[in-house]
Design goal:
- Residues 1-12 have a biased composition (Basic and acidic residues).
- Residues 1-57, 309-333 are annotated as: Disordered.
- The chain starts with 26 loop residues before the first helix and ends in an 11-residue tail after the last strand.
- The longest helix is centred in the middle third of the chain and has 14 residues, at 151-164.
- The chain is α/β, with parallel strands linked by helices and 333 residues long.
- The chain has a seven-stranded mixed sheet with strand order 4-3-8-5-9-10-11.
- A hairpin with a 5-residue loop joins strand 12 (312-314) and strand 13 (320-322).
- It has helices spanning 27-32, 76-79, 99-105, 151-164, 182-186, 194-199, 224-227, 231-236, 240-251, 264-273, 283-287, 300-305, and strands at residues 62-66, 71-75, 95-98, 117-118, 127-132, 137-139, 142-144, 172-177, 203-208, 278-282, 293-294, 312-314, 320-322.
- Mean pLDDT is 72; it is low at 1-83 and 316-333.
- 26% of the residues lie in helices and 16% in strands.
């Protein structure tokens, strides 16, 4: 799904290669990873008790927990022992930016000007919430949400406009942008509500600015995780924080009450697979007028290969260090 060769796909409205529903895991993977801690306790250095799936999210047969070293896939019976997803206190509740407002700025807005809306005020039956998961860009030695040319903003804009044709016309689309949310800004050293944020989103989006997009090709029939050669894509998977967002996005249960009204691959994920899609859209797709690309679900051996605790965190000098040497999740700088 989303991979192409010398002649890339002109559309992505079909579900693509068959994907495994959330509850149908390969037996070999389930047997290969046995929990090293009880399901009610999390021993991973990057996990907290809130990184658990609530039994109220009953649209999937699979829930995800952390073991001491690697993510562990557990079944529904075991999930009954898990703690529920933790909602933040009212003053720290999740806020999102209406896509129409986002479009009006011509750039990624700052926190103070972003006109966020609390999710409790949304009509969820007619809303699609997209979690933007990405790394910040470098302007000299300074990390910025975007560059001077607003390349990332343009990619987010283009991607969401393409996704919008897959939802009913009466839908509103909202964006969650990490630096904009005052919850993350004020609790930068904690991750206790990340599962809550992601569980309230219906899709993940990674914009990939790529000045060298024309210097590489996708391998026909290959694996997009490995074969998409944008440098920003490689850097994304180095980061523990980004791996964690992708991990939770693909495996936390999701349910949209109007999933059956959607079309194309978006409907395939939300209505059939009951999984939250991870969408990528880079300079390559924008320049070649290609559709957004839907990643295969991050599960089984691929999930283990990209374990969040094996990722890296930034050091003060701008380099990366192993996760265990960093006390907080800020891998944006």
């Amino acid at each position: 799904m989303g991979c192409g060769g010398s002649k890339e796909r002109e559309s992505d409205t079909s579900p693509g290669p068959p994907l495994e529903p959330a509850g149908k895991l390969k037996e070999s993977t389930a047997k290969s990873r046995q929990p090293k801690a009880s399901a009610s306790k999390i021993d991973s250095p990057i996990a907290s008790s809130s990184f658990q799936s609530s039994s109220s999210f009953n649209t999937s047969d699979t829930f995800v927990s952390f073991g001491e070293e690697m993510p562990v896939i557990i079944n529904r019976d075991e999930s009954k022992q898990l703690a529920p997803i933790t909602a933040p206190p009212p003053d720290l509740d999740m806020k999102v930016v209406p896509f129409d407002t986002f479009k009006s700025f011509g750039r990624i807005p700052s926190l103070d000007e972003s006109k966020q809306i609390e999710i409790g005020k949304l009509d969820m039956l007619n809303s699609l919430i997209i979690f933007v998961t990405n790394i910040w860009m470098k302007e000299g030695d300074i990390s910025m949400a975007d560059n001077a040319e607003n390349d990332k903003y343009k990619l987010i804009l283009g991607a969401v406009e393409k996704v919008s044709v897959l939802v009913p016309g009466d839908f509103q689309i909202f964006l969650w942008l990490d630096y904009q949310d005052d919850t993350v800004r004020r609790r930068r050293g904690e991750m206790e509500y990340l599962d809550y944020f992601i569980s309230n989103c219906h899709a993940m989006l990674t914009p990939l600015p790529d000045a060298s997009y024309d210097s590489w090709k996708l391998v026909s029939g290959g694996n997009i995780y490995d074969d998409y050669k944008a440098e920003a894509w490689r850097e994304y998977w180095l980061r523990a924080w980004c791996r964690l967002e992708a991990f939770l996005g693909s495996n936390l249960p999701v349910r949209h009450p109007a999933a059956g009204r959607m079309t194309g691959t978006l409907r395939h994920f939300l209505n059939h697979l009951q999984r939250r899609p991870h969408i990528i859209y880079g300079t390559r797709e924008a320049a070649k007028s290609l559709p957004v690309r839907f990643l295969p679900p991050l599960q089984n051996t691929r999930l283990l290969e990209l374990a969040p605790e094996e990722g890296e965190m930034p050091k003060g000098d701008g380099g990366l260090s192993p996760l265990e040497h960093s006390p907080g999740p800020n891998c944006r700088s």
